[in-house]
Automatic annotation (TrEMBL):
<dbReference type="InterPro" id="IPR052157">
    <property type="entry name" value="BCAA_transport_permease"/>
</dbReference>
<keyword id="KW-1133">Transmembrane helix</keyword>
<dbReference type="InterPro" id="IPR001851">
    <property type="entry name" value="ABC_transp_permease"/>
</dbReference>
<feature type="transmembrane region" description="Helical">
    <location>
        <begin position="94"/>
        <end position="115"/>
    </location>
</feature>
<feature type="transmembrane region" description="Helical">
    <location>
        <begin position="135"/>
        <end position="158"/>
    </location>
</feature>
<feature type="transmembrane region" description="Helical">
    <location>
        <begin position="6"/>
        <end position="27"/>
    </location>
</feature>
<feature type="transmembrane region" description="Helical">
    <location>
        <begin position="190"/>
        <end position="212"/>
    </location>
</feature>
<keyword id="KW-0813">Transport</keyword>
<comment type="similarity">
    <text>Belongs to the binding-protein-dependent transport system permease family. LivHM subfamily.</text>
</comment>
<keyword id="KW-0812">Transmembrane</keyword>
<dbReference type="GO" id="GO:0022857">
    <property type="term" value="F:transmembrane transporter activity"/>
</dbReference>
<feature type="transmembrane region" description="Helical">
    <location>
        <begin position="60"/>
        <end position="82"/>
    </location>
</feature>
<dbReference type="Pfam" id="PF02653">
    <property type="entry name" value="BPD_transp_2"/>
</dbReference>
<dbReference type="GO" id="GO:0006865">
    <property type="term" value="P:amino acid transport"/>
</dbReference>
<keyword id="KW-0472">Membrane</keyword>
<feature type="transmembrane region" description="Helical">
    <location>
        <begin position="224"/>
        <end position="247"/>
    </location>
</feature>
<keyword id="KW-1003">Cell membrane</keyword>
């Protein structure tokens, strides 16, 4: 039973990091209806910028601030130069634009910082820590705590500030929000800037876990089951979906993996997401589409 809880808690801790990546998708989708497939490239660009500055002797805090400023600038540039001119186009057009943009960002990162693999140390060891008789990874606890703190901060920001009120108004009814004087361009700019900040934190945590390499951009693929299960428009759904994915993949790997030859952790979340699509297409907390016929 102790081993079961160790696996379960380890999965939940990983799920918080999945939720952090999914959070960036939800913010942009709620504000503009755009599924930003370039989020993974933004995560890679952030981690690569930070670790490259560290390797050039820049202090940790200054490297973080410079990387943060670079991500905010990159996000604002994407929103202003690429997506704003495409307002009103079909969803598939916007999706293809972000897909192409992801390759542009990855190419720019490679041209700017090189293509070699980097190790990233955040000063937290990955040695097990005994908590209540359970052995848990110190880094997993740190990463989950950091991700959870950021998620809570952003939830408070968008729930109790005028910007958050404007975002909820735009998400509920764009035309009504415009008629009340909400500046849509400002809301989009803020949301994209916040998504850039989320990309930086996610890049540092996942870069420390997996190494800073170009496969890091594929971490967004783990966010897809999270979004399908939790719902594309729900911030709370991203958190719950991340916890479900993290816990289920770890438990499936340990208890079902031996019967199918192992490796189930990589694809089990997609099987779970497929079942949700068949039973509840909008996810646990997503808004159901209602069309007049």
């Amino acid at each position: 039973m102790e081993f079961f809880f160790e696996v379960l808690i380890g999965g939940l801790l990983a799920g918080v990091m999945y939720a952090l990546v999914a959070f960036g998708f939800v913010l942009i989708y709620k504000a503009s209806g755009v599924f930003n497939f370039a989020q993974g490239a933004m995560v890679l660009f952030a981690a690569l910028t930070f670790v490259s500055l560290l390797e050039r002797g820049v202090p940790f805090w200054l490297a973080f601030l410079v990387s943060l400023a670079a991500m905010v600038l990159l996000a604002l540039l994407i929103e202003r130069a690429v997506l704003r001119p495409l307002v009103g186009r079909s969803p598939i057009t916007l999706f293809m634009a972000t897909l192409g943009l992801s390759y542009v960002i990855e190419g720019a990162a490679q041209a700017l910082w090189g293509a070699q693999v980097h190790g990233l140390e955040l000063g937290v060891s990955d040695e097990p820590l005994e908590v209540g008789g359970l052995l848990l990874s110190q880094f997993d606890l740190f990463a989950a705590g950091t991700a959870a703190a950021l998620v809570v901060l952003l939830i408070l920001l968008f729930k109790y500030t005028r910007t958050g009120l404007a975002l909820r108004a735009v998400a509920d009814d764009t035309l009504a929000a415009l008629s009340l004087g909400v500046r849509l361009e400002r809301v989009w700019a803020v949301v994209w800037a916040v998504a850039g900040c989320v990309g930086l934190v996610a890049g540092l945590l996942w870069g420390a876990r997996l190494g800073v390499q170009f496969s890091l951009s594929l971490v967004v693929l783990k966010a897809l089951p999270v979004l399908i299960i939790g719902g594309f428009t729900s911030i709370g759904g991203a958190i719950v979906g991340g916890l479900i994915v993290g816990a289920s993949e770890k438990l499936a790997e340990v208890y079902l993996g031996p019967f199918v030859g192992g490796g189930i952790e990589n694809w089990f979340p997609y099987v779970l997401a497929l079942l949700f699509l068949l039973v509840r297409p909008a996810g646990l907390f997503g808004e159901r589409a209602i069309a007049r016929v």
